[in-house]
Amino acid sequence: MAEGRIIKAISGFYYVKSDGEVHQCRGRGIFRKKNITPLVGDFVVFDKNNPDEGYVLEVKPRKNELIRPPVANIDQAIIVSSATMPDFNPLLLDRFLVLIESKGIKPIVFVTKKDIISESQRQLIDGYVREYQQIGYEVELLSSKENLDELRKLETYFSNNVSVIAGQSGVGKSSFLNAINPLLQLKTDDISKSLGRGKHTTRHVELVEVADGLVADTPGFSTLDFNEIEANELDECFPEINEQKPYCKFRGCMHNKEPKCAVKQAVEKGEISNKRYEHYISFLNEINSRKPRY
Ligand code: GDP
Ligand code: ZN
């Protein structure tokens, strides 16, 4: 009996990494009875059985799990936004931040393509970077076209962590991963990416090594709706709003129409960004106007 972590799952086989070695395993029927499907990222107990085929016997409790991509026990999500092409989009960034915060996963923001922005664009982006850093987020402005020495400085973000990458198409997710780990050779232009996803291609996810950590090779959070977030949980997904919340006059304050709201006061004093507050209100309206699910 040994313990390890599933790093790849494909066609009924689980590839379990344990002490630096990868073991090909099948799942025992017990999972179907218990309604547990082992996921990539799971810590498991397995029976090495024989050199080329073992059995996963037990899945350890998970700290979290994602459906897309199907990965368990994620430490952090790296949201990739581009400074340009496509334009930096704070509304979309906040949407990703909320989705990630709501899962209890730590977000980190990487802003790419700094090599192709003008001086005035640079000032605008630097302003955003500072704003998000003030909230407490880790933010890096980078270029994947940079030399490897520069990029290596970012390796510390991956050390001993399991990360998923999120971000809209074209912002440079694959380019960044390829730049930091040239062995990956992920496809980087849209045409070959869509070819790789033909009807008969089995979609699977794999944890690949980046620096001393593991990264899911399929981007996460492809559905960007708030169907799984309740209105009264939304303020917890904005750290700076959550911080003011205890000072609101009314318990259960939604920071919208309520009087004596500490959040609105902080916005007036300029302690909370107007834009972030506007995004909070627009997400709140979106959640409140959603049709009941049953
Ligand atoms: P993805 O869809 O997020 O995986 O984006 P890709 O990695 O496929 O990149 C989309 C396009 O942006 C490609 O043409 C890349 O060469 C380009 N690109 C990505 N990152 C950078 C960067 O930091 N600087 C520049 N100049 N181009 C980049
Ligand atoms: Zn309030």
TrEMBL record:
Residues 63-224 form the CP-type G domain. Its main location: cytoplasm. InterPro entries: G_CP_dom, NA-bd_OB-fold, P-loop_NTPase, Ribosome_biogen_GTPase_RsgA, RsgA_GTPase_dom, RsgA_N. Gene3D superfamilies: Nucleic acid-binding proteins, P-loop containing nucleotide triphosphate hydrolases, Probable gtpase engc, domain 3. Zn(2+) binds at C248, C253, H255, C261. Its cofactor is Zn(2+). Its EC number is 3.6.1.-. It is an enzyme of class 3 (hydrolase). Keywords: Cytoplasm, GTP-binding, Hydrolase, Metal-binding, Nucleotide-binding, Ribosome biogenesis, RNA-binding, rRNA-binding, Zinc. GO terms for molecular function: hydrolase activity. One of several proteins that assist in the late maturation steps of the functional core of the 30S ribosomal subunit. Helps release RbfA from mature subunits. May play a role in the assembly of ribosomal proteins into the subunit. Circularly permuted GTPase that catalyzes slow GTP hydrolysis, GTPase activity is stimulated by the 30S ribosomal subunit. Monomer. Associates with 30S ribosomal subunit, binds 16S rRNA. This is Small ribosomal subunit biogenesis GTPase RsgA. It comes from Virgibacillus litoralis.
